[in-house]
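Bug: token stream looks shifted between consecutive jobs. Job 1:
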Amino acid sequence: MTQFPIAKFRQHSTPFYFYDLELLHSTLDALKDGIGKSPFFVHYALKANTNPQLLAAIVESGFGADCVSGGEIKAAVNAGFESSKIFFAGVGKGDDEIDYALDHHIGCFNVESMPELELIAEMASNKAVVANVALRVNPNIDAHTHHYITTGLNENKFGIALELLDNAVAYCQKQPNLRLIGLHFHIGSQITDLEPYRLLCERINDLQDKYASKGIKFDLINVGGGLGIDYDNPDQNPVPDFKAFFDLFRKELHLSADQQLHFELGRSVVAQCGSLITKVIYVKEGLGKKFVIVDAGMTDLLRPALYQAHHKIENITSTATETDRYDVVGPICESSDCFGVDEILPITRRGDLIALRSAGAYGEIMAMHQYNMRSVPGCLVEE
């Protein structure tokens, strides 16, 4: 079990998010080691977490930003990401968001539809600028994750269907205010089996061969992100195997000597460095179950309710040697406000502190404060 600074925790109101910057720096170092000298470029996906102290460490490491809203672009700019390293994705880019991105000369728009492409061309023309675009292709590959986080199938809302890609490429070639620099892909999230990525490489190789035969080459290929983490064993596997991930693309993807390969990694960068710390309010005895009721709820960590996701749950203050079986639940007036069923924990009492591990991604960033009029959880960063 990770050694948490319990005395410091006792001084903070719960619930709060705790971030281990030392682990984040180790993760960033492993990420750079995995890239090595390859022409690989990583854009951190801000949708995972925009905590300013985490962003500062990521900027310092030299990575770019993957943004899916104007608000995220502003956060990236304010954090110090280079504009040329900011890529703008998302299926529903608004006019004001595109306007802001053009004014800040971001590196690339990852375009998801013909209407979006036409709007960017029009707005770029009005500003007398040239917008770099990459066409997001829907490769119809099943990443075998939860259906809410699978993005690369024909039935998903994301990307341009393979059958419609030629029209989008031809349109870009005719527009003086668009510069088509690449193809973009993203097949899903929390992918722990690398086989879908191998299939993606095959699909990209075929597309590149097809367009090369027409004299069309792309400066970059963007394969998105989605690399998963070990939610069950965060202490044994605190840092993903970035080398195996990048090695697959080195082996399977056919790039020309002057092509760049871009990635958009979020969860794998920040998830393990964060935990949600919550206090036990009551231990309730039911007829057939025991409930640990904590002061954090689905408004503070939405993933279990939204995705049926499970985070490792630890009682970090109990000194008991005996264990018991509990359902760990929050105070929200919803039956889905449950973090774990039949969790084996040390004998747990009122006032104990509980850690919900691997919560650095899609935790604090998704917290809500209006439902049940709850406060947003605080934050504690350990240098």
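Job 2, same session, no restart:
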Amino acid sequence: MEVNGSFYRSHLLYPLLVFTLLAILFEVTHVDLALGDWLFNLEGGKWSLRDSFFFSTILHEGAQTLFKVIIPVFILIWGASFYIEKLKPYRKVLLYFAIIVPLCVAWTTNIGKLATHVDCPWDLIRYGGEKPYLSVFSIHPGTYAYGKCFPAGHSSIGFSLLSLYFVFLELAPKKRFYGLAIGVIAGLLFGVTQQLRGAHFISHDLWTAGICWLISLMSYLVIFKAEQI
């Protein structure tokens, strides 16, 4: 697809506007607490699913393990594409996938969490923990340790699959929204899993989705369209 003004409006400007409006809406309406309270009460006044085999072992730990295995495989296949002629046409796609998940996880987990102060729901006094609630844009008083729960690291694995939109955009443009749907569904699956466990609020996943979309877009431009930038 040609990279022009229309492309940037559709893939950068409009998504940024939607994200900004949602982030503001979440902040002023306290939807985090409303949904968190509902889930907490639904689970009997405690995070009863926190150590659930299905949510904790399979959807949390299992998903992390799966992607830790998949990424090295993509890297190996990408390396093999320099020697196996049949793989050569897919070299950029393989490289793209090999870097997207590590980049998304790194920016949400290793960088985002270190730069913010937000706690997990299960750490809050409101839900039986020891810390007061602070929203994303609140100023931390500095009298207790910073939280390390924002943005959502686990859902970044799922939202990294938003990159499939750009893969289809390059290889089969008419199917690009299938890729978008896969990324949204995977991100929501992992995001809701952590919300049910008391690990994250919904706004954490919103920010993660925004970060993963931006990383997917920038990586697409660099890997597939570098000569056009």
